[in-house]
Amino acid sequence: MTPDELLLQLRDIHLPDTALSQPGSGFSWLPFACLAVILLVLLWIRYRRSRIWLHQARKRLKEIGASIDATPADNADAQQQHNTDLQDLAKQIAPYRAVTPFPAAVFLPPEKINNSRLKQIHDHLHQVVDS
């Protein structure tokens, strides 16, 4: 076969007369919708996690406050334990909220901290958590 004969046989192959595609059908919203759903789920999870520490801090503050109220004024060991608990709670809250400036009672020696000063620290942390 000669090249001219081969070309004559190939001339029978034609493209379709009309294109079957519709305008705008090449763009898909599905990837963007999936991305938006994933982003919303991640934001919701982050929001829930950020609220968990707040709930735990409020619960712990309530427990410490009730314990401070129930502690007799002459029980130095319990007062020192409450002071330690409040300072530990302040350390846990600090990454999420600004706990400073502390009341002056925080900087006193442990033997000078009484129930009224513990209540000052408790009230300060309560204001920090509720703000």
Q: What is the 3D form?
A: rod-shaped
Q: What is the CA-atom radius of gyration, in angstroms?
A: 35 Å
Taking the alpha carbons of the first and last residues, their distance comes to 91 Å
| Range of helix content | 55-70%
Q: Segments where pLDDT lies below 50 for 5+ residues?
A: none
Q: What is the beta-strand fraction? A: under 5%
Mean pLDDT score: 85
Q: How does the major sheet shape up?
A: none
Structural class: mainly alpha
Number of helical elements: 4
| H and E string | HHHH
Q: How many beta-strand runs?
A: 0
Question: How would you describe this protein?
Answer:
This protein has 131 residues and is mainly alpha-helical. The chain has four helices and no strands. Helix 2 runs antiparallel to helix 3 (76-93), helix 2 packs antiparallel against helix 4 (115-130) and helix 3 runs parallel beside helix 4 (115-130).
Topology:
Elements (H helix, E strand, L loop, with lengths): L2 H8 L19 H41 L5 H18 L21 H16 L1
Helix pairs in contact: 2-3, 2-4, 3-4
What characteristics describe this protein?
131 residues; mainly alpha
What's a quick, concise take on this entry?
The protein has 131 residues and is mostly helical. It is 63% helix and 0% strand. Helix 2 packs antiparallel against helix 3 (76-93), helix 2 runs antiparallel to helix 4 and helix 3 packs parallel to helix 4 (115-130).
